[in-house]
Amino acid sequence: xxxxxxxxxxxxxxxxxxxxxxxxxxxxxxxxxxxxxxxxxxxxxxxxxxxxxxxxxxxxxxxxxxxxxxxxxxxxxxxxxxxxxxxxxxxxxxxxxxxxxxxxxxxxxxxxxxxxxxxxxxxxxxxxxxxxxxxxxxxxxxxxxxxxxxxxxxxxxxxxxxxxxxxxxxxxxxxxxxxxxxxxxxxxxxxxxxxxxxxxxxxxxxxxxxxxxxxxxxxxxxxxxxxxxxxxxxxxxxxxxxxxxxxxxxxxxxxxxxxxxxxxxxxxxxxxx
Length: 273
Ligand code: NAI
Ligand code: 15L
Description:
The protein is an alpha/beta fold. The protein has helices at residues 13-24, 55-62, 80-101, 134-153, 174-177, 181-193, 218-221, 233-236, 244-248, 253-256; strands spanning 5-8, 29-33, 45-49, 67-70, 104-110, 157-162, 164-165, 178-179, 199-204. A 7-stranded parallel β-sheet has the order 3-2-1-4-5-6-9, with helices on both faces. Helix 1 packs across helix 6 (181-193) and helix 3 packs parallel to helix 4. The longest helix is centred in the first third of the chain and has 22 residues, at 80-101. Bound molecules: 1,4-dihydronicotinamide adenine dinucleotide (NAI) and D-galactaro-1,5-lactone. Residues 9, 11-15, 33-35, 51-53, 71-75, 86, 90, 108, 110, 162, 164-165 line the site of 1,4-dihydronicotinamide adenine dinucleotide.
């Protein structure tokens, strides 16, 4: 019998959608979140309210699971002290549980790991991490935790550098960063079921002609995005952020948050590297 999968962040925007759609594929799910699950439980799913900071609870929840789909934690820029517990300590609990169970981890990383690269710059996996805040930095930590646990303990993991995952793109930046819900569902399913995963890093965006992201490990898992933001171009290409730092960098508004550098930026504010 196929082992169940543990889905963290199940009560969040993406978690609720993944719970519904993955359950519909016949996947047995264990759902968890610090908040109550707001929807009727999908077929074959159970829900347990738990804090990612409670390592014992996470170990128990992962017992017998073949994969942990890790979508829980702080999902926007916040002060360091708010992020540290769920996103750093909580992530460690996820990896320790996966190690004990011999399970793989599918980690919801983010474009905010590389947010300070200039818009228009085409990135592959050799690009530098350029986190645009404490949130992005916590995702860099998550990806490197995956690197460590694969190299040292053989825990397979996929790190999805998700752009903007919404029902539809709503601003010009998302012509490059949008990931449709169906493309995310297919991506997570492919990562959870691929015969061999290793340590994989995959750009989480749809087949957008204006994408800034190129080569990654998607062939290894047999995933190719099918949707595109282009159909929305006429209605969103004029919707630009009011802040120049946000318009200039891939991370958009997250780059502008608490930005205090004062020297006048040339083409790329950080071109001295
Ligand atoms: P969300 O904020 O709606 O969901 C996150 C969930 O984590 C919430 O339900 C929250 O209650 C839960 N959570 C927070 N702290 C917790 C704790 N201490 N213990 C247990 N659960 C806790 O975020 P969303 O949009 O659903 O994103 C899901 C994941 O995908 C997040 O990790 C986010 O960083 C990542 N991501 C999302 C993107 C998007 O476009 N929605 C883009 C890039 C990454
Ligand atoms: C993220 O990482 C956030 O979780 C999400 O709320 C969006 O802001 C997204 O990135 C984005 O960059 O559009």
